[in-house]
Design brief:
single chain, 10 helices, 389 residues, VC0802-like, 6-stranded antiparallel sheet, 3 domains, Carbamate kinase, alpha+beta, 4-stranded mixed sheet, 18 strands
Length: 389
Amino acid sequence: GDTTDHLLELAATVSSNPRGRELDALLSTGEQTSSSLLALALHDIGVDAISFTGIQAGILTDGTPSKARIERIQRDHILRELEKGRVVVITGYQGVDCEGNITTLGRGGSDTTAVALAAVLRADACEIFTDVDAVYTADPRIVPQAKRLAEISYDEMSEMATLGAKVLQPRSVELAKRYQVPLRVRSSFTQSEGTLVRDIAEAQDRGGRSMLEQVMVRGVAHSADEVKLVVEGVPDVPGMAARLFGELAENKIAIDMIIQSMHKGGTNDIAFTVPREDFPQAMAVSKRIAQEIGAKGVVFDENVAKVSLVGTGITQDSRIPAKMFKTLAQQGINIDMISTSGTRISCVIDKDRVEDAVRALHEAFFSPGESPEELPEATVGGAHYHGAC
């Protein structure tokens, strides 16, 4: 959030390329300040509370700076304090590696910390209080008539989070599904029940009848934080793509959409998208690999965005992608790249047209006659887009 941004700006005043161990140590101080202040506030109203850093809470991670993953949590210290009747306030977003270095989990890492703690402590559920009040079928700032959803499945929420919905960190949803921890997204500012994220075996209509095989679009997601890279003139021989994407994976760079196009003369172009925050590192790795494999070079485009439809079994009904592409064409929006999975259809388009695309797709798939007036509680949907650490 704002605190993380401030600390990053502070780091930039003393370093042209702040990163690694020292940056993690700096960024961890934001959560430490917040947890201590919360414990003090609880003391003031008569609640016995104690704050723990990630180290004190026993949150052990791998050693990847700024993108660490939790390996295990030694919960004994937490349990001892809980048994004393204390409220334990634990810093999110951080842990410690095997060498004693402070690590951070990346933006939104507090969500992952909360779910991991809920899992190891065998909590009944994990509630995430944030600045949004629920999950929606689209960003309500763009589509005011977007519908709030009472429930959403782990798989659908994971897709929405990955595709741009910043209400939850994708890793937190994956962790919740793995350990079957029900998640509830709630607002810090209202009494709303928010949205429950859980394992939903099948959907039902409002009469309680099974809709197991009914394919339904449940959300329109978008992300304007994308960059497209194209490695041009890649030799058309086995192993070139493996070399490129293997190296990107080694650097923990998230890759989403990939397209390979063939040219006469035995060369290919390989295009792919990465999150904007990974772009500098992705560009450096791609240039190095391009040179090593004898490719022509690497070009990039920052004026791109991604718009997606989400719904279980969405690609099983060919009318859905056809309608999506027709809707975008009617708006004069060109599609640059297309990617599909069992639960989503994504298109890379011009960044300047992404809000037009979201509005048009929501109108096409959620207007009266296209979707029930009230979405069933036991189905899935889109999300409200607000970033929070």
